[in-house]
Amino acid sequence: MNRIRIALGCALTLATVAAAPPAFGHGGDDHGAPPVTSQPLLPRTAAESPDFELVGVLEPGRIVFYVDRHASNEPVAGARVSVEGAFAGSAAETAPGVYALALAAAPSAGHHALTLAIETATDADLLVATLDVPEPADAAAEDGVGGGALGAAGFAALAGAAVLGVIAMRTRRRRTANHDAGLST
C-alpha cells in the first residue's frame, strides 16, 4: 500500500511539473538579458596563416572578409584581397581590415572552396578556406513547429493522468479507512 502511494505521488508530481506553463518576463522587465534572435547565423568561413587571420561572412549580395594580423589581432588596413575559386574577384576595403566582395547571385547550397591572396606593403600570403552554405530551412523548422513545446493534447493527457492519480489515491484511502474501521469494532 505504501508503494502505491509513493508511486501515485511521484506520478502526480511529474504530471504537475510537466504540465506547468513556461515562465516569461513581464511588464517590459528584461533584467539586462540580451534579446534572443530567431534568425540563424549567416554562413561563415575562416582561415589563418603565420601572418594573417581571416573570417568571411556571407551576407545578402556579398561576402565580407575581416582580415587581422595573426600575432596582434590588429586589422589589416590598405591590403589588396583577391578571391579565386567558387567566387572570384577583388574585395574592396569598406573599413580598416574589412573587405567586401560583391556577388552577382546568391550561392547555392554546398561547400565552396576559396583561395584568398592577401597583399600588403610588407607581406603577402595565400589562405585557403571553405564556405559552407546550408540548405534552406523548411517552414516548419523556422516556425518552431514540433520544437518540443507541450501541445494541447499533451497537456490534456498529463492533466488526465494527474486527475486519475488523485482519484486512485482517494479510493485507496477510503478502502484503507473502511478496512481499518471494520477491524477496530
Summarize the structure.
The protein has 185 residues and is α+β, with helices and mostly antiparallel strands.
Describe what this molecule looks like in 3D:
This protein has 185 residues and is of the alpha+beta class. The chain has helices at residues 2-19, 139-143, 152-184; strands at residues 44-48, 52-59, 62-69, 80-85, 89-95, 98-102, 110-119, 124-133. Helix 1 runs antiparallel to helix 3. It is rod-shaped, with a radius of gyration of 31 Å. A hairpin with a 3-residue loop joins strand 1 and strand 2. It has a domain at 44-137: Immunoglobulin-like (Sandwich), CATH 2.60.40. The longest helix is centred in the last third of the chain and has 33 residues, at 152-184. Residues 139-148 have low confidence and may be disordered. The protein is built from three helices and eight strands, in the order H-E-E-E-E-E-E-E-E-H-H.
Keywords:
Immunoglobulin-like; eight-stranded antiparallel β-sheet; 185 residues; alpha+beta
Poorly predicted residue ranges: 139-148
Total strands: 8
* CATH top-level class of the domain at 44-137: Mainly Beta
Structural class: alpha+beta
What is the H/E string? Answer: HEEEEEEEEHH
Write the layout of secondary structure elements.
Elements: H1 2-19, E1 44-48, E2 52-59, E3 62-69, E4 80-85, E5 89-95, E6 98-102, E7 110-119, E8 124-133, H2 139-143, H3 152-184
Antiparallel strand pairs: 1-2, 2-3, 3-6, 4-5, 4-7, 5-6, 7-8
